[in-house]
Design brief:
alpha+beta; four-stranded antiparallel sheet; Alpha-Beta Plaits; flat; about 60% helix; about 5% strand
């Protein structure tokens, strides 16, 4: 379990790989995903590395596969995903893959080119068919005398050469429907009204062969006289991207041409169908193996990219690599190298040699599907420094608990638990579906966090006795009004005539002692419910906050002990824990003491904790209204304050001076020899030798130079931040109280303003009204109380862990271990 509480112990290792076996060895290392390669050629240009040509070939194959994938998706053909993990192909298989992809790409491009040409021809014939059909209708209409008279009005009466309408020329074509109004205005203005335009819409949309989109077009025919107008009309048609088609002048020729066009369209349609069938067969065959091809190609590319990080020795027969790897996985790495050497057929074994390094290793925390979500929460704040305490195991409990303190409601917690259980129980099926929705993926990744948050919310909901803003009367109430009748204080008329009555817990028998579990349900109908819950939840928040922060400070002790820093223990941890415990730990003890020491009869005389705590800092003990809680309170509180104040200079000054003395002691070795006589109060000769050896070892680690001013400023900032942070952080935990009350009040408002409407009627119509109101109540409950309030409580719990808890012991200044692995490809992210 050690690796759960600290990051894995890492080591820098050197790999010696034979050139023939390097490819297969790196492939096996990628399968297990336990090593992180270092770039041994940082000064070498990417295009000048050894395997740059192989990387380019893999990129070219990847480009061809993306083209094939695009065509498959365009054809709405599903890509087969069997979850297969194909082995990495050997380098000699690259030629076969390249030939296969080249053949497939060329075949698809040829099919697309031919299909586009056929569709273009089909579009032209279809448009010509509509032109011939519509033109015949236009000419038939023009034979009407009234239309002939209307068309002759368009001609200039001063020009006798244009009197005969039968001498008019015409052009026919097709244009986009949305351009017709502008096209008509342009013809009128440029030709000055000396043309006659007729147009009709094509009912069925036509397919654009280049883009595949459906477009709506219209047929037009333009009558004019003279070559000058003819040239103007053609230029306008060209500017509006209208397509002109030849149209015979006689009806017989148009009829014969239409028959020929229809025959050609039928033949072309048959050819198009055959071409599309062939294209579908090619794409369906490719869809079965394209995912496997993607994985193979990208595995090869990843291997060659990794080989470019290695050094090649002068003999060109060995590759040298440096890797970070966990010490616990050395045997697995050795076995993978042996397996890769055997697969390559090489007889020279690969060598894995551990190296001594002064560089800081990467941080690697092993996780599973349950702990990964909590580890991600910690890593979002900062990657932990190497081998320092990992907050994730403690976050598994404290994070959902603090969330539940703010979100405590049995009903809402049950709904959240059921939603999380659905995600947990069906996780295998949901993973197989590969949902690309970002919000769903984020929620699914935190399904175990949500599950624990829901379970803890159910627990705190029982403690608060709150379920959809209503209390559960499980054990009955501990309060009773019967003794009032026996004492003769209350009568039936008293109960009937008063809406509010006060129960005195000091009267014997009225209060039956502590409630078995949670809060007594009678508080849900009391007028001073909010006052009681305010006091209870505020004190509870302070207690939880102090315990949480003291636990964080305690964890820093394990860091100091592990890194062998006794100075941080004596002049860091001990003053910090004493400072916080003597002030805020004492406050938490006072809260428990007041709960235990005062009962219903003496509670009215109980002094205020807030006044007592303020007077403790002010050394004010002469106030007659502030009675002491216990005997000897003044002496103990003065001692605690002085003890806390004494811890400040210890952290601020003493530690800085001790660090300076240690530095000078090591620098001068504390002794000077004059003729064999030891002078000074420094260490002995043997101690000096040991110190000198330690000094050389320390210098080899490239530690920063000791600068007294910088150390003093840093220590002052740390001390001030810690001392002021103890106050602000304790106040920050009051958000547990505030959000808990806000959630309860919002739930109560939603019930009283929505659900009470549906419960107000007793008739059959009230049942229908109740169903409608319950629908809105359920939607608002999920949207506001579960989603919005849940997200708010989640963010506040996140802040309490990042700022108030982790800053006591967690530096978070490391860098993450990023092993070379094929897992991302096998997870289905091959299309990224």
């Amino acid at each position: 379990m050690g690796e759960l509480f600290r990051s894995e112990e890492m080591t820098l290792a050197q790999l010696f790989l034979q050139s023939e076996a390097a490819y297969c060895c790196v492939s096996e290392l990628g399968e297990i995903g336990m090593v992180q390669f270092r770039d041994l050629n940082p000064d070498v240009n990417v295009f000048q590395r050894k395997f740059v040509n192989e990387v380019r070939r893999c990129e070219e194959m990847d480009r061809k596969l993306r083209f094939v994938e695009k065509e498959i998706k365009k054809a709405n053909i599903p890509i087969l995903d069997t979850g297969e993990n194909p082995e990495v192909p050997f380098p000699r298989d690259m030629i076969d893959l390249e030939a296969t992809f080249e053949k497939l790409e060329n075949e698809l491009k040829e099919i697309n080119t031919n299909q586009e040409a056929l569709k273009k021809n089909f579009l032209e014939l279809t448009e010509l068919k509509h032109i011939l059909h519509r033109t015949q209708q236009f000419f038939n209409e023009m034979e009407d005398p009234s239309l002939l008279e209307e068309s002759s009005i368009l001609l200039d009466p001063n020009e006798p050469t244009r009197v005969a309408p039968l001498r008019l020329g015409f052009v026919a074509g097709v244009i986009g429907r949305e351009r017709i109004p502008t096209f008509e205005r342009m013809l009128w203005r440029v030709c000055r009204g000396n043309v006659f335009l007729r147009q009709a819409d094509i009912e069925d949309p036509l397919e654009d062969p280049s883009s595949g989109d459906q477009v709506h077009k219209s047929v037009f025919i333009i009558f004019f006289q003279g070559d000058q107008l003819k040239n103007r009309v053609k230029k306008i048609c060209e500017g509006f991207r209208a397509t002109l088609y030849p149209c015979p002048e006689t009806p017989q020729e148009r009829k014969e041409m239409l028959a020929g066009v229809n025959a050609r369209i039928d033949d072309l349609q048959m050819v198009l169908n055959q071409t599309e069938d062939h294209r579908q067969r090619v794409l369906q065959a490719a869809a079965k193996t394209v995912r496997v091809w993607f994985i193979k190609v990208r595995k090869m590319k990843a291997i060659y990219h990794t080989l470019n990080l290695c050094n090649i020795d002068v003999t060109q027969k060995c590759l040298i690599a440096e890797v970070w790897c966990p010490v616990s996985d050395m045997d697995s790495i050795q076995f993978a190298l042996r397996r890769g050497t055997e697969k390559s057929g090489s007889t020279v074994p690969s060598i894995l040699n551990r190296m001594q390094s002064t560089q800081t290793p990467p941080t690697y925390n092993k996780t599973n599907k349950f702990t990964s979500g909590f580890q991600n929460i910690v890593d979002a704040y900062g990657i932990g420094s190497y081998r320092e305490i990992n907050p994730a195991p403690y976050t598994i409990i404290t994070f959902p608990f603090l969330f539940a303190v703010m979100f405590g409601d049995l009903g809402h917690g049950t709904l959240m638990t059921c939603a999380a259980l659905y995600l947990v129980l069906r996780e295998s099926r949901l993973i197989a579906q590969k949902n690309d929705n970002e919000i769903f993926s984020m929620v699914f990744a935190g399904r175990y966090i949500i599950l624990l948050m829901g379970i803890f919310s159910m627990y705190t909901g029982v403690i608060y006795n709150d379920c959809f803003s209503k209390s559960l009367n499980v054990f009955g109430s501990g309060w009773s009004v019967r003794p009032m009748f026996k004492g003769g204080n209350w009568t039936t008329e008293t109960l009937e005539s008063n809406t509010v009555l006060q129960l005195d817990p000091a009267v014997e028998g009225v209060f039956g002692g502590p409630y078995p579990f949670g809060i007594d349900p009678i508080w849900s109908i009391s007028t001073n419910k909010l006052t009681f819950l305010n006091s209870f939840k505020m004190k509870m928040s302070v207690i939880l906050g102090v315990i949480h922060m003291l636990f964080g400070v305690t964890l820093s002790l394990f860091n100091h002990l592990y890194f062998r820093k006794p100075l941080n223990v004596y002049l860091g941890f001990i003053p910090e824990i004493v400072f916080m415990a003597s002030l805020f730990g004492y406050l938490a003890i006072l809260i428990f003491y007041k709960w235990v020491a005062y009962d219903a009869r003496t509670s009215r005389d109980a002094p205020s904790l807030l006044i007592a705590f303020i007077n403790m800092f002010l050394f004010s003990y002469n106030d007659p209204t502030a009675k002491p809680l216990y005997r000897g309170q003044m002496g103990l509180q003065i001692l605690l304050v002085l003890l806390a104040l004494a811890c400040v200079p210890v952290m601020l000054i003493v530690k800085t001076l001790v660090l300076r003395r240690q530095h000078l002691w090591q620098k001068h070795l504390g002794t000077q020899n004059f003729g064999g006589i030891r002078v000074g109060n420094g260490p002995t000769e043997d101690e000096a030798g040991i110190i000198q050896h330690d000094q050389l070892a320390q210098q080899s680690e490239d530690e920063p130079e000791f600068i007294f001013a910088d150390v003093a400023v840093h220590q002052a900032i740390h001390t001030i931040e810690y001392c002021l942070g103890c106050i602000s952080n304790t106040a920050s935990y009051l958000r547990l109280w505030a959000l808990s009350l806000a959630h309860a009040q919002l739930s109560e408002v939603l019930w009283s303003m929505v659900m009470r409407i549906g419960l107000s009627s007793r008739s059959f119509g009230g049942f229908v009204l109740l169903a409608i109101v319950f629908y809105f109540f359920a939607v608002l409950t999920v949207a506001i109380l579960l989603v919005m309030e849940g997200l708010s409580a989640f963010l506040h719990a996140l802040r309490l862990h990042w700022v108030e808890f982790q800053n006591k012991f967690y530096a978070g200044q490391g860098f993450k271990f990023l092993p070379f692995t094929f897992e991302s490809i096998l997870d289905g992210r091959f299309d990224e």
